[in-house]
Amino acid sequence: MKTNLKKIVVAVMAVAILTSCEAVKNSNNTQRGAVIGTAAGAVIGGIIGNNVKNKNSALGAVIGGVVGGVAGGVIGKQMDKQAQKIESEIPGAEVTRVGEGIDVVFDENSGVYFATNKSTLNSKSKANLNKLAGIFKEYPDTNIIVEGHTDSTGDDSYNMSLSQKRANAVTNYLISQGISKSRLTTYAHGETLPKYDNATPEGRAKNRRVELGIVANEKMKQDAQNQVKQ
């Protein structure tokens, strides 16, 4: 397990212990998520801020988009449904619910991938992106961060360029499937944000990935706040 993930797990466990009073135990899922989300947001946000070198990352964007409170719990409940939909329709995707957003990872073993040194989407990747685009249309009040990554093999500048081309390929394909360009933000990280050990073939394969962050847009945030006021 990676260091950042270990720290996040420890932070969430600590907050869960701190929020295990009778009132939290007797609350529903949305209320409980709001309580824990408010307390954990700052802790986890600090972990991400201190450890992710480039703040323009999918996971960093998910953490940074926290509304908090009961409104955050409302958003979280909607994100639960979207995450479950992605998991059920694209089984190979690594889907993680984080705070009030979703982190989705595609690597060579999970749905959207590229041939070595290539940035052209293959037929299987397109099929999975078709499913993903359909889900995004069902949940229009979200923004999507698309980022490309490579392993450490090869020149730094080449890897950065390759990761940009791969991220652009995914973004452009989603746009071609009817996803509004205004919902999409694209970043390239090259080899700078590995999630696995580049010293092993398995680790390098997993680092050659496209990662997506799904966060609430302003309309979803406002609707959640209005719902709380009612």
UniProtKB/TrEMBL annotation:
InterPro entries in alphabetical order: Bact_OuterMem_StrucFunc, Gly-zipper, OMP_bac, OmpA-like, OmpA-like_sf
A GO cellular-component term linked to this record: cell outer membrane
Entry keyword Membrane: yes
Signal peptide: 1-25
Subcellular location: Cell outer membrane
Database matches in CDD domains: OmpA_C-like
Keyword Cytoplasm set for record: no
Coiled-coil portions: none
Gene3D superfamilies: OmpA-like domain
SUPFAM superfamilies assigned: OmpA-like (SSF103088)
Alphabetic keyword roster: Cell outer membrane, Membrane, Signal
Start and end residues of each OmpA-like domain: 101-218
Pfam families the record matches: Gly-zipper_Omp, OmpA
PANTHER family with a match to the protein in the record: LIPOPROTEIN YIAD-RELATED, STATOR ELEMENT OF FLAGELLAR MOTOR COMPLEX
Protein name (record): Membrane protein
Organism listed in the record: Aquimarina atlantica
Lineage of the organism: Bacteria, Pseudomonadati, Bacteroidota, Flavobacteriia, Flavobacteriales
